[in-house]
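Narrative of accomplishments. A recurring question from our advisory board has been how the design workflow behaves on a single, concrete structure rather than in aggregate. To address it, we present the structure tokens for one chain from the evaluation set, followed by the sequence designed for it. No filtering or post-editing was applied between the two.
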């Protein structure tokens, strides 16, 4: 299925929404309130840390590959320049510079690995996986490097200069 075919489907209004992954329609359960609270908190923290040249949002839809992919980052951060160049009747082309996924019970390792690979190969500079139960954040970069940050530590944010984000602030 293409993105254009996907857009002609009826709107999701039940306990699931759908993403387009590799041309396949994939159901995903609607997030619970704990998930939303972390998304909103993190988007606010990143807006503050990133400054005016960046846009941070929860539930940021993007087309990592233009024809057969339409995914939604739990939190995504893109440059204002890229955002301003995006057609208002479309979605962001390519993956956001920073993609953050908060683990949910429905997520599988294979799904997270696929999403990380897709994003890092299509513009993402950092891909984060948040585990709120372990209070940790795994940060992966395109070169295959990954670091896991834990409660009590600070995550460097090189995209935004000499800025750091406390892990505990994410899970407060």
């Amino acid at each position: 299925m293409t993105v254009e075919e996907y857009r002609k489907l009826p709107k999701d209004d039940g306990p699931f929404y759908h993403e387009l992954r590799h041309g396949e329609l994939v159901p995903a359960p609607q997030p619970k309130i704990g998930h939303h609270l972390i998304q909103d908190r993190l988007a606010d923290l990143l807006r503050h840390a990133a400054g005016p040249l960046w846009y941070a949002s929860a539930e940021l839809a993007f087309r990592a590959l233009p024809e057969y992919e339409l995914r939604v980052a739990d939190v995504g951060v893109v440059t204002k320049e890229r955002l301003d160049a995006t057609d208002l009747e479309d979605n962001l082309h390519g993956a956001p510079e920073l993609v953050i996924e908060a683990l949910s019970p429905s997520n599988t390792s294979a799904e997270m690995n696929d999403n990380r690979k897709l994003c890092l190969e299509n513009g993402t500079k950092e891909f984060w996986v948040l585990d709120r139960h372990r209070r940790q954040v795994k940060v992966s970069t395109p070169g295959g490097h990954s670091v896991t940050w834990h409660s009590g530590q600070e995550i460097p944010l090189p995209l935004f200069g000499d800025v750091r984000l406390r892990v505990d602030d994410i899970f407060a």
